[in-house]
Amino acid sequence: MRPAPTILHLDMDAFYASAEQAAKPSLRGKPVVVGGIGPRGVVATASYEARVFGVRSAMPTAQARRLCPNAAYLSPRFTLYRQVSETVMGLLHALSPLVEPLSLDEAFVDLEAGGVAPETAAVRAVGEQLRRDIRAATGLTGSVGLAGAKMLAKIASEQAKPDGLVVIPPGTERELLGPMSVRTLPGVGPATAETLRRAGIHTIAETAEAGEAELVRLLGKAHGAGLYAMALGQDDRPVVAERDAKSISVEDTFEVDLTDRTRVRTEVLRLADRCVQRLRAAGRSGRTVVIKVRNYDFSTLTRSETLRGPTDDPAVIREAAVRLLELVDTTGGVRLLGVGVSGLADFTQEDLFAQLTTEREAEELARAAEERAGAEPAEEAPEEERPRRWHPGVDVIHDEYGAGWVQGSGLGRVTVRFETPWSAPGRVRTFAVEDPALRPGEPLPLVGGGPAVDQSSDPAILPKSVSEVPESPGDAASDPGEEISRR
Ligand code: DCP
Ligand code: MG
């Protein structure tokens, strides 16, 4: 534990949804849900306005539609999110050589390694300046936590949400953590929380009071001892720049054991995509693909496959992960799945798979999103013969009306709203899907693209006082991945 709160955790607010609101002026201040829009799709994220209605990440989109029928339901635009992420990660790298990205929108930064004075006032000033810089460069808000340990910095940024900054001065952590639910601690998912609840342990203070021996008795040696240290606020894990990391992995624990083989496969594909996002956020590629499977009886095994060369190709990593899954018997039920890549290399090293064009990458990601959405796979027919499919949210250009985005389509018609990130809310027009004047477009930059805009007057998300919503008790249950993937 450091004597000063020099570990910074940044997490962008409602990331995909805020990016969509920044890009689409007519959606600012309105409920927006980004995710799979097909019948079996799941929610990637919801704007804070949609969260008021109970919409959450990982919830089936069909359920979200029932809770919040008036929200805009949009397909993800990964190209845009990756561009914004690169800008944000660039600002973090300017603060310190030690930046550890956890996903496209989240990272730890070791400010001490960046030469910031180890004092609360100095780190707070750096955090506030960072938030302003992110806002100016991307038009989006991010929340910052500052503490003497990674776990605490992450809890702090969660408390700061949305659009805030919270410092946990070293020495105050036990008092602060005490009343919080034990679910707040990394590694405590629904199953662990249930075991603790039966032993009468609900809060972090009760966890600390139970003592190490009791926790080891309840949860086993490694987990029990680890949890005891976390409950005391003890977390010595260093911030590891991903260029120094040996592997990158993501995993999810499920509330109910998965027995359906198709579902297990879908989850592995989803984890493979998330793993690729993290690899790319770190600018790395890797050679060995690993899957991890924990069975209903807690037996855990890993299987790995080493490729000919390092890759960050989602298709290659997905295929390897699914091949590895074929080697595992999951009939008894699966508690946890993980996908990782090790043998990491920088992009500058020989990369046998790196000759992918950006176009192909975009296609892969679109297909991945579509599969998650439960839509039929992309047709094999060549471009000209293919019926044009206009997914809600995608960019288009019209010969006469200019840049816009698809608001909806069906029955041979497509509705387009013509607006840009720097315009006023735009008008809607309807066309035949085959209209030759309408073509697919590219994401436009969120800031700096148009005539002078006042970034401070038009936030993509509402200030905290307006948009803060009470957490529903069912909240955590909606994201089975919470316990590990948010570590
Ligand atoms: N994401 C996803 N599937 C999930 C969780 C998240 O695809 N189950 C994507 C969409 C999110 C992004 O990752 O926008 C970042 O995840 P966060 O958990 O940080 O969630 P948000 O940034 O959306 O909201 P918050 O303000 O709570 O951080
Ligand atoms: Mg976020």
Automatic annotation (TrEMBL):
<feature type="active site">
    <location>
        <position position="106"/>
    </location>
</feature>
<keyword id="KW-0227">DNA damage</keyword>
<feature type="site" description="Substrate discrimination">
    <location>
        <position position="16"/>
    </location>
</feature>
<dbReference type="InterPro" id="IPR022880">
    <property type="entry name" value="DNApol_IV"/>
</dbReference>
<keyword id="KW-0963">Cytoplasm</keyword>
<keyword id="KW-0235">DNA replication</keyword>
<feature type="binding site">
    <location>
        <position position="11"/>
    </location>
    <ligand>
        <name>Mg(2+)</name>
    </ligand>
</feature>
<keyword id="KW-0548">Nucleotidyltransferase</keyword>
<dbReference type="Pfam" id="PF14520">
    <property type="entry name" value="HHH_5"/>
</dbReference>
<dbReference type="InterPro" id="IPR050116">
    <property type="entry name" value="DNA_polymerase-Y"/>
</dbReference>
<dbReference type="GO" id="GO:0003887">
    <property type="term" value="F:DNA-directed DNA polymerase activity"/>
</dbReference>
<dbReference type="InterPro" id="IPR036775">
    <property type="entry name" value="DNA_pol_Y-fam_lit_finger_sf"/>
</dbReference>
<dbReference type="InterPro" id="IPR001126">
    <property type="entry name" value="UmuC"/>
</dbReference>
<keyword id="KW-0515">Mutator protein</keyword>
<feature type="domain" description="UmuC">
    <location>
        <begin position="7"/>
        <end position="189"/>
    </location>
</feature>
<feature type="region of interest" description="Disordered">
    <location>
        <begin position="437"/>
        <end position="487"/>
    </location>
</feature>
<dbReference type="InterPro" id="IPR043502">
    <property type="entry name" value="DNA/RNA_pol_sf"/>
</dbReference>
<feature type="compositionally biased region" description="Basic and acidic residues">
    <location>
        <begin position="363"/>
        <end position="374"/>
    </location>
</feature>
<feature type="binding site">
    <location>
        <position position="105"/>
    </location>
    <ligand>
        <name>Mg(2+)</name>
    </ligand>
</feature>
<comment type="subunit">
    <text>Monomer.</text>
</comment>
<comment type="function">
    <text>Poorly processive, error-prone DNA polymerase involved in untargeted mutagenesis. Copies undamaged DNA at stalled replication forks, which arise in vivo from mismatched or misaligned primer ends. These misaligned primers can be extended by PolIV. Exhibits no 3'-5' exonuclease (proofreading) activity. May be involved in translesional synthesis, in conjunction with the beta clamp from PolIII.</text>
</comment>
<keyword id="KW-0239">DNA-directed DNA polymerase</keyword>
<comment type="similarity">
    <text>Belongs to the DNA polymerase type-Y family.</text>
</comment>
<feature type="region of interest" description="Disordered">
    <location>
        <begin position="363"/>
        <end position="390"/>
    </location>
</feature>
<dbReference type="InterPro" id="IPR043128">
    <property type="entry name" value="Rev_trsase/Diguanyl_cyclase"/>
</dbReference>
<keyword id="KW-0460">Magnesium</keyword>
<protein>
    <recommendedName>
        <fullName>DNA polymerase IV</fullName>
        <ecNumber>2.7.7.7</ecNumber>
    </recommendedName>
</protein>
<keyword id="KW-0238">DNA-binding</keyword>
<dbReference type="InterPro" id="IPR017961">
    <property type="entry name" value="DNA_pol_Y-fam_little_finger"/>
</dbReference>
<dbReference type="Pfam" id="PF00817">
    <property type="entry name" value="IMS"/>
</dbReference>
<dbReference type="Pfam" id="PF11799">
    <property type="entry name" value="IMS_C"/>
</dbReference>
<keyword id="KW-0479">Metal-binding</keyword>
<keyword id="KW-0808">Transferase</keyword>
<keyword id="KW-0234">DNA repair</keyword>
